[in-house]
Write a structure and sequence with these properties.
single chain, about 220 residues, alpha/beta, seven-stranded mixed beta sheet, about 20% strand
Length: about 220
């Protein structure tokens, strides 16, 4: 179910005051700079440059909105945590991201990108702390899993699930590789369920091999 195919750019905003009126369910993508967020979005969308991929972390400074065929919006949040960005800019990005995650009523779920070699950094945990109180679902993509052996990748997956287990079924986790195009169908099934586009309903069957535990939509 390629729900991200044919996504079309709609608007970029730099300040909370620039957020457009709600016009459909929104799925946000967030992640630490250089964790592979733009590559993951491009892989899911089947587009080489829907989201800008840079070898210089910290380049994405705006919230970018992309309209999906379903009418929902893919929302690409600025990458966080790049040390070379001036402190003033970091504070502005943090304020923009926090405002969006905590106050955007049309946001129905968060896809949190983590490098599988360095998951759950303090800034990742900060993002989780901002978003978790909303009760909305969060799906973690452990990217660059092709850089790990099969055994190591499996161990990382189980460890991240264990550490996030206190949050309950609100959070699901899977391995993902943009290079190998692995994990795409699983991610699509999870997010399609958030949008009511098919797949297991809330609290139904366990999710698929490599990935999430269940797909509930608490708080929705």
């Amino acid at each position: 179910m390629p729900i991200f195919r044919n996504a079309q750019f709609e608007i970029s905003i730099a300040k909370p005051s620039g957020l457009p009126p709600s016009s459909g369910a929104e799925i946000a993508f967030a992640g630490r700079s250089n964790a592979g967020k733009s590559s993951a979005i491009n892989t899911l969308a089947g587009h080489v440059r829907l989201a800008f991929v840079s070898k210089t972390p910290g380049r994405t400074q705006l919230i970018n909105f992309f309209r999906l065929n379903s009418g929902a919006l893919l929302v690409d949040l600025p990458g966080y945590g790049y040390a070379a960005v001036p402190e003033k800019v970091r504070r502005e990005w943090q304020g923009l991201i926090e405002h969006y995650l905590r106050q955007r009523e049309s946001l129905i779920g968060l896809v949190l990108i983590m490098d599988s070699r360095h998951p759950l950094t303090p800034l990742d945990r900060q993002m989780i702390d901002w978003f978790a109180p909303s009760g909305r679902p969060m799906h973690v993509l452990l990217t660059k899993s092709d850089k790990l052996s099969r055994g190591a990748a499996s161990a990382v997956l189980q460890d991240v699930r264990r550490q996030l287990a206190p949050l309950g079924p609100q959070v699901t986790v899977q391995l993902f590789s943009s290079l190998k195009k692995s994990g795409v169908e699983e991610a699509e099934r999870v997010i399609a369920a958030w949008l009511g586009l098919g797949g297991p309903a809330a609290g139904d069957e366990p999710a698929m091999a490599d990935g999430a535990n269940k797909n509930p939509r608490p708080g929705e």
